[in-house]
Amino acid sequence: MNDLAECLSRTLLLMRDEVGGEVADEVLLSALTCTRVVLVADGRNIASPPAQTAFVTAATLMARSGHKVWLSAPNIRMSGPQPPLSPGRLIDELVAVGLNLIPGVEFGVGEPTDEIDLAIGLGDTPITIPARRRIWINAEAWAGILSGEDTTRPWGVHFWPMGALAAAGLAANEAFKAAMQKLLPYALDRDNTSDRFADSDSIRLRLAPVNSPFCRDLGEVDIVSGGAISNAALYCLARIPGVNGRGRVIEPEAADLSNLNRYMLLLRSGRDVSKATDLTQTLVGGGLHFRALRRRYDSSTVDEIAPFARVVLVGVDHIPTRWLVQQAWPERVVVGATTHWSAMASLHANGSGCAQCLHYEDDPAEGLIPTQACVSFWAGLISAVYLARQAVGDLPSVAERQIFLTPFRPETIYRAPVPPRADCPTCLSRGSLEVGAHSRAAS
Ligand SMILES: [Zn+2]
Fold first, then answer.
1. 425 C-alpha to center of ligand 1: Å?
2. How far apart are CA 37 and CA 408, in angstroms?
């Protein structure tokens, strides 16, 4: 397998949900790499840090799916941290990162000459480049917006990054759909694939209530896994102005090429390096101070790793590990996860069921897990929103302790409680521990 195919191997595996196993890898790779996008922003619309966040995030999400992306924006000095980009000028640093992502998928600069699939404008930047489709993105503090030309307005948010991150996700979703639409002749169920990857024309996707407070100090957070969810969540949190936070990234493995399709803070030069070390070093220089702990969290290391911070983010696919973290009963557990085309996150705290109440049965996965840039990014973003809100005591209502969305159909986002289960082994074991503690105290 060549490096390009290896980098996109998990994306290809997920695309096979739609086209089966018979279609050659080259056909799927070509659908991704022949999807041509231009990202357009003028100086007025890209002046603020959240606007720069939207631009950088959309560009790198699309590159991680193998699309050919042109950057048409002024090469301004970035006004806030944009890891994994180094500080400096927007286009220069994006181009440098592009050379260090998927081999052969570097960014183009300026306006492409031949026709492209999708042009994405920031704010009310005019799009004058011929394109099969044109969309615009914008943001509010907690909402991402996708629209057509008739409803554009100047870039709307200048401080808080979460809505801008959602806007970038909405843009990258549409680019990936353009790639999937090229594969409709191969679809196992053409109607189904066509519906899932149909264009979205006008969306306002709300991550949290409009007046949710902003945070600066995340406190101490332990992160179990240095994988896709942890990467995306830290990527989002690192963009909070003046952010402070500390904790551990607990992860035993090294990164490989097949992680580049979705690890938002990983560059190709970080392959074969410990995921935990690479992730924590990428954040150096910002306000997030995490320590790499190169261990697997399992029953043999529980005592060594204890005690957890008050808040733990769990980004592991392995469901029994989520239970094991929960059984240490940190005050708050946030679980982020993906399954095929869907992303989810949940917050387990007083008033809600635990991580096992929600993920009640093991679902053992073997071999390479199918994943895609946008899906993993959305799971990390909604996890980051839980972490940011709880950090200022803004616990989401019990009715909104889990979020489930299929990013390519962002019109529908499902929010629900996490009901406690009477038969949950983790909750039952806690109950018996507490009874035991009380009886010891009584004697
Ligand atoms: Zn439970």
1. 7
2. 17
Q: How far is the CA of 423 from the centre of ligand 1 (A)?
A: 8
Those residues of the chain that have pLDDT short of 50 are 435-443
pLDDT of residue 443: 32
Compute the distance from residue 58 Cα to the ligand 1 centre, in Å.
Answer: 37
Find the 427 Cα to ligand 1 centroid distance in Å. 4
Question: Do 3-206 and 217-428 share a fold?
Answer: yes
Ligand 1 centroid to 359 CA: how many Å? 9
Q: How many A from CA of 330 to the centre of ligand 1?
A: 13
Q: What's residue 105's pLDDT?
A: 95
Distance (angstroms) between ligand 1 centre and the Cα of 354 equals 4
Level-2 CATH architecture, domain 3-206: 3-Layer(aba) Sandwich (3.40)
Q: Where are the domains of the chain?
A: 3-206, 217-428
For 217-428, give the CATH class: alpha beta
